[in-house]
Amino acid sequence: MKILYDHQIFSSQTFGGVSRYHCALIKEFARNHLLDWELPLYFSNNEYLAKLFNVTKFFPDCQFRGKNWILERLNRQKVISVLKRGDFEVFHPTFYLSYFLPYLNRPLVITVHDMIHDLHPELPAHQWEVREKGKLIKAANQIIVPSIATANDLMRIADISSAKISVIPHGAPDSLSYSSRQLNYCENEFLFVGARSYYKNFDVVLRALKSAANVKLRCIGGNFTAEEMRRIDELGLNERVRQETVHSDNQLASIYAQSAGLIFPSLCEGFGLPILEAFSASCPVVLSDIPVFREIAGNSAVYFDPHDEADLSKKLSEVKLRRQELITNGAERVKNFTWEKCAALTLKVYQEAIR
Fold first, then answer.
1. Distances 293 to 12, 50, 100, 333 between C-alpha atoms, Å
2. CA distances from 88 to 75, 204, 280 (A)
3. What contacts 230, CB < 8 A, 6 or more positions away?
4. 2-171+338-354 CATH, one of 3.30.360.10, 3.40.50.2000, 1.10.238.10, 2.40.170.20
5. Three-state secondary structure call for residue 306
6. What does the pLDDT look like over 1-11, one tens digit per residue?
7. Topology of 175-336 in CATH?
8. What is the pLDDT of residues 31-46, one digit of tens each?
9. Other C-beta atoms lying within 10 Å of the C-beta of residue 43
10. pTM of the shown model
């Protein structure tokens, strides 16, 4: 069996959860010789892909108008040429652009990572994602989702039968990349990882910090916006909140291990890879009390009302008191999430799509 993947996410992401997911799958398929695969593209600046095979970067140190558009169109033509050739059994695109539909005469499997844009029309690119993703949902032979919560959203919003959907959780990070587990930790410095805007609910963390004496926050992600800096100053948190950029998984592992705990306050998510990252690096987690996080973390986390900064402030103290218990539970919980299991279940979906 040969699976054809496309360029989409590797033309747009340097780092990110979706490209990490596809690379982890491909790596597992290659490691266990489960199937043949092809990923046609001319260029990519994606760091995960660069670890799988040699790929030419596209002006990595130069930014200019239209760069991403040019990169996407070049790679798109490469994919179309392979689609026309037709020497594969299943097509699995890496994101939601529907450009390939006129050229496709093989089974289509898609991964719907979440339904967040459908639930939050205020998000950038809302119309584009809802439109394009909707086309693929209708055309797909089989649909993979990472959680039961996402499956429920998909069935409710898109009116899709459960028979077409397979729930396949993501795997935990590679253990070799998350080996820094015995570092001294800062008992008063918590961690926030990833994007902070819209449904990520960052402001509730800032408000909780204002009433949590001596607690600090380390943010891993993009630079603070002017609005975030104004808000931090307004709350008097300039000396307690800092931002930094991470350049490797090993560095990120060390930061997790050094933290009092991960705060993940989202109002909605499709999965939540930072939870597994934290579990893998012996870092306790304090999570917003939403169904998908309960599904992933079970009894291995402290939960708070995502609309109540006072509740979060109280739960930060609880995390400190229960640190070793949470680390132990998390180490057990993360064993349920492996890329080997994810790849094996995905292979069954490909086989079902062919049938």
1. 27, 31, 34, 13
2. 18, 48, 36
3. none
4. 3.40.50.2000
5. coil
6. 999 999 999 99
7. Rossmann fold (3.40.50)
8. 988 899 999 999 999 9
9. 19
10. 0.93
